[in-house]
Amino acid sequence: MSEFPGVSASGEIVEIAGAGPAGLAAAITLARAGRRVVVHEMHNEVGHRFGGDFQGLENWSSETDVLAVLREQGLATDFTALPCHEGTAFDCTGKRYRIESDAPLFYLVERGPGPQTLDSALLRQARALGVEVRFNSRLRRPDGEAILAAGPRAADAIAVGYHFDTDMANGYWVICDDELAPQGYAYLLVMNGRGTVKSCMFAGLKQQKIYVQRTVEAFQRLVGLEMKNPLPHGGGANFRIPASAYSGPHPQVGEQAGFQDTLWGFGMRLAISSGVLAAQSLLNGEDYDRLWQRALKPQMETAVVNRALYSLLGNRGYGWFLNWITSHSDPRRQLGHHYHSSWLKRLLRPWARRRFESRRRRRNHEYLRRS
Q1: Could you give the 3-state DSSP secondary structure of residue 270?
Q2: d(CA 169, CA 149)
Q3: Does pLDDT of 1 surpass 90?
Q4: Residue 33 counted as domain residue
Q5: Helix H or strand E segment including 314
Q6: How far is the C-alpha of 139 from the C-alpha of 146, rounded, in Å?
Q7: Which CATH number fits the domain that encloses residue 38?
Q8: pLDDT at 11
Q9: Each residue's pLDDT tens digit, 282-325
Q10: How many CA atoms lie within 13 A of 202 on its CB side?
């Protein structure tokens, strides 16, 4: 027997709780190595809580393009991914900042059960490899090997707004203004005749309706936002750096473990990577904590410092930050540098940890949802 938690004799079925990107990435990694896998998903479809939400798959935290990283991890990339080279940001005065990068800053992807979503692409790959996915099923007390990927437990930040149809051209727009999104940002994403407009807020969560209304009005004024058939939608994110990502003998992955980007919430890469690492820990008899702490923890610790610093900027500081990002010839490289550790950010870690306290045990907030 291995000395590490979660490792038992090969050949047993590995059960996974949750069919999000982290859980499916784990299932795919295990199945590619010849393991039998059963995934339990409590909803009747993948990506149930997202329902067609547009999100950004960030492409600045590594030199290698994120789609190439996914392929190196053995994961499917046959989902619609709009490369975003150019976009526009605004500060609280309405000043416009043009964002341009040679390589995509991020890829705009759709989440949920649709045919071209990231979630569906991973589901197709998992099933093609023989993974059994059981919908409307909960994994309550696993007896053998298992990976826990059940999603967030609390809301440290929320993104609330609308999905809609539109005649607007593809693109992305961002507003940094505490009157729209306290300590966060408001965003508008449009791809192929559909759009998402939201306030991503890290404070003032109980006043979400006011901030969403202001966000919609601001985008109408600044870029001519046009919404047809708008549907309300919202979701939350939980951020923490766990001392251990095991629950008993079982690895926890994705947002269940707190693996998210604490600065802005671009957490899909972290979630997917955690699923791959958890699967590798079972396959190779390695300590999962050692794997994720080596591969993911440095970026996560830097993100906490970034979050603490960003929360101090306020409206005057956001303008300085946007000017700093856009004044460089390669904003992607500049953001990547911002996400990497440095001696100063290592020095600031204790202060940042004290400033940012996860609300994991606090009462969840209600979100706008589809009626």
Answers
A1: helix
A2: 36
A3: no
A4: yes
A5: helix 297-326
A6: 9
A7: 3.50.50.60
A8: 65
A9: 999 999 999 999 999 999 999 999 999 999 999 999 999 999 99
A10: 23
- What is the side-by-side order of every strand in the sheet holding 14-17? 132-135, 37-41, 14-17, 146-148
Q: How many domains does the chain have?
A: 1
The answer to whether residue 124 sits within a structural domain is: yes
CA distances from 12 to 15, 35, 166, 311, 348 (A): 9, 8, 49, 47, 45
Residue 150 lies in a domain: yes
State how far the Cα of 116 lies from the Cα of 47, in Å rounded to an integer. 12
Question: Taking Cα atoms as reference points, which of 263, 261, 262, 297 lies closest to residue 277?
Answer: 297
Range of the domain at 133: 14-51+67-79+111-154+240-296
Round to whole Å and give the CA distance between 235 and 160.
7
Amino acid letter at 71? Answer: R
pTM of the shown model: 0.92
Residue 36 located in a structural domain: yes
Q: Show the tokens assigned to 6.
A: 């979660």
